[in-house]
Amino acid sequence: MSRPEVRLSSSIFRANIQAVRDRVAPSALMLVVKDDAYAHGLSWAVDAAIEAGVEWFGSYDIRTGLSVRRLAGGDARIFAWATSTETEIDDALMQRLDLGVGTIEYLGRIIARAEALGAAARVHLKIDTGLHRNGILPEDWASAVRQARRAEQAGLLELEGVWSHIAEASDEDDDIAHAAFRDAVRIVGESGAVPGALHLTASAASWWRPELRGTVSRIGAFCYGIRSADGPELEGVHPAASLVATVSAVEDDRVTIELGSFDGLPSTLSGSLVGTPDGPRTLVSVGPTSSIVEGWPGAEVGAEVVVFGAGAHGEKSATTLAERIDTVGEEILTRLTPRVRRVVAD
Ligand SMILES: *Cc1c(COP(=O)(O)O)cnc(C)c1O
Q1: pLDDT, tens digit, for every residue of 70-119?
Q2: Residue 185 Cα, ligand 1 centroid: separation in angstroms?
């Protein structure tokens, strides 16, 4: 029985990276690789990114950051922003990861580990610009900066960056966040520090709002070719992943494909369109291990149906499917289970 596959295109991924870099330059791309590179698979994605010249990686957690260090080598800059345990902090310091720091408590723990190990921590301080999800409050900012600067003078810390995260849901809220971010950067400047990495924006704001970009842009989704829900198409950016299922039975006007909810295909997707050798057809129903697609002339066992991605039968993104069930493209990919084989090609 032919199992479904996620086909991953290294060349499309690299072309997306190039398109994103061209778009955001002179801001530097930080490729976000959390959630196993948005379910594309970390190891080939880092290899391809290095080949494409990516210098900054955003790993979310330290464990993933250490994997990126092994794959990418000593020169890559790797930003890990999850608040972590002492053991993980020690590993991060030894492997020269850049740490995102959103609380004074975490800053204190990092400085303590740097002192214990005799190593300087690379720190990016995070200002809360309104999301209230981990970030130093504006009223605590000056004291956090003083603490970081004291540690810097003691050789325990390098203040490499200032950052925050914005919702990218309304221009107005993002503008308010940007103003708070600029205030935080100004206070750091007044302390005499000149951090090189200032970063606020993810995919959507980096692409559409150049005035909000810092010296670095943290981008995941668009590099994988996942556009925003309800967002327009992106020039030069295409899905790097395709989900392909094989026809296992043909009966009258009903074609069975080997892909179902046990593979992570949401059953709420029935009614959406999938790509067949004869053009788009309706996905009639989703069963546990197989699903029914509306037939086409000459349908035969072994034919391939493209559920999403850049296939021979026209491009349809995970986001298009996601919009149908009111979620985001990343969700469609990260829900696919290990039953779905990942196959990487150039
Ligand atoms: C996931 C994430 C990003 C990347 O977001 P995309 O919209 O996928 O580009 C950037 N920054 C932070 C803090 C994130 O968690």
Answers
A1: 999 999 999 999 999 999 999 999 999 999 999 999 999 999 999 999 99
A2: 21
Q: What is the pLDDT of residues 41-61, one digit of tens each?
A: 999 999 999 999 999 999 999
DSSP 76: -
Tell me the one-letter amino acid at 42: L
Exposure of 193 in the CB half-sphere (CA atoms within 13 A):
29
Q: Which residues line ligand 1 (CB under 6 A)?
A: 32, 34, 81, 165, 202-203, 218-221
Q: How far apart are CA 133 and CA 253, in angstroms?
A: 51
Q: What is the CATH number of domain 10-224?
A: 3.20.20.10
Question: 9 pLDDT exceeds 80?
Answer: yes
Q: Look up tokens 């842009």; give the residue.
A: 217
What is the chain's alpha carbon radius of gyration, rounded to the nearest angstrom? 23
Domain residue ranges of the chain, discontinuous segments joined by +:
10-224, 241-344
Condensed to tens digits (0 to 9), the pLDDT of residues 153-175 reads 999 999 999 999 999 889 999 99
Q: Which of 166, 78, 75 is nearest to 128 (CA)?
A: 166
Q: Confidence class of residue 328 from pLDDT cuts 50, 70 and 90? A: confident
CA distances 137 to 103, 127, 245, 315, Å, are 9, 6, 49, 44
Architecture of domain 241-344 in this structure: Beta Barrel (2.40)
- For 30, phi then psi, to 5°, come to -105, 110
The CA distances from residue 266 to 156, 318, 326, 336, in Å, are 49, 12, 12, 9
Q: What atom in ligand 1 is closest to the CA of residue 168? A: 7
The total number of residues written for the chain in this structure: 346
Q: In angstroms, rounded to a whole number, what is the distance separating the alpha carbons of residues 69 and 48?
A: 14
Contact 48, 37 (CB under 8 A): no
Centroid of ligand 1 to alpha carbon of 34 (angstroms): 9
Could you give the CA distance from residue 219 to residue 203 in angstroms, rounded to a whole number?
Answer: 5
Helix (H, G, I), strand (E, B) or coil at 287: coil
How confident is the prediction for the chain on average, in pLDDT?
A: 95
**Residue 114 phi, psi (nearest 5):** -60, -40
